[in-house]
Write a structure and sequence with these properties.
With about 60 residues, this protein is an all-alpha fold. The chain contains three helices and no strands.
Length: about 60
């Protein structure tokens, strides 16, 4: 995760559901970076989307 650089920026509010264990880990990491839960989740999603292989790349990995 060396490319993940936490930072603050503004986004619209949404609601999601997740299991409590995952939420606890998110809260722990967000706290370590000095970010809100929402800011941390948003940046994790951005990172995942930026590094997700295309369907063609995914087929080549299988």
């Amino acid at each position: 995760m060396s490319d993940f650089i936490p930072k603050q920026y503004k986004k619209d509010a949404i609601t999601i559901r997740m299991d409590l264990g995952k939420l606890a880990k998110i809260d722990e990491l967000a706290s370590k970076y000095g970010l809100s839960r929402s800011e941390f989740i948003n940046q994790c999603i951005d990172y995942a989307l930026d590094h997700m292989p295309s369907p063609e790349e995914q087929k080549n990995l299988e």
